[in-house]
Amino acid sequence: MSETLRIPTLPSFGALPLARVALDRGGALRSSPLLLDELWGAPTTRVMFIAQGKSPVVDGNLLFVDSATVSRPETLVYLGRTLADDPDHGGIPTGTHILLAVLESMDNEIFDGTSWLGLREVALALSGRDAGIFVQAASIANWHAKHTHCPRCGALTEVVEGGWVRRCPADESSHYPRTDPAIIVAVVDDADRLLLGSAAAWPEGRFSTLAGFVEPGESLEAAVIREVAEESGIEVHSPLYLGSQPWPFPASLMVGFIATAVNTNQVPDGAEIVDLRWFTRTELLEAVRSGEITIPTGASVSRALIEHWYGGSLDLAVEGVRL
Description:
single chain, alpha+beta, five-stranded mixed sheet, disordered N terminus
């Protein structure tokens, strides 16, 4: 009898808070030059507003309004259609088109009684659908804000392709949104201790996993090895991918790894990282519980990495709930 072969299952985070598939983005629809004109004012269209990274939130939900009831903004982006299997539809019918109105400032007069909140403030409180839409909206809005002119000739660009391309009328070049990949890594040693670092820019006592941007011509795995060595003096091997999520502050994709340390004589680089510590699970729990250190919030990949290594929720463990 032949042995049954199975595809190995690698450890992963599961669903990260900001990695939700919220909409059918409708890439094929964007090529129509009439798309936004046809959708604006249609009964199947709703509009989300964003200004300076913040969006109107009502009762813990993003505010979506009928496009026929508001003025059309100068910058408009097609985000996609709501999905049939979305458990967080929030009363919006399947197939509803969502447009993003990018404003220069928050207009409290139009949305009286609402709060304009940023993604960091509400990421964990929003439904999966709203969190996914907010990430998408924040990312594309940041790109539009920072890429108003052609990088080749300096001319003012025009928005086309449903808001996903900026075209230069002077040299006819097209420019597309870009994402900056960054690695973030849980470094563990042979004793299964976790390495955490404190950055120079952070408040005293804040610790997190090590991270850094991927350089041109570099693989993700090579970036893991280089960044850890540069920031801590630790050599690592066998980087293992665990998961990723967008981090639109302003345009990153955080790619999470776990890697094994060759040595444990850590030396902070003194520029970005000013302190490094190895933790056992008991030591980390006690340090967090006592307030000696703080760690990233649940919306971050760093928190997911830490809790993946720890084996469960640190918040529950701090409260004394047995995992």
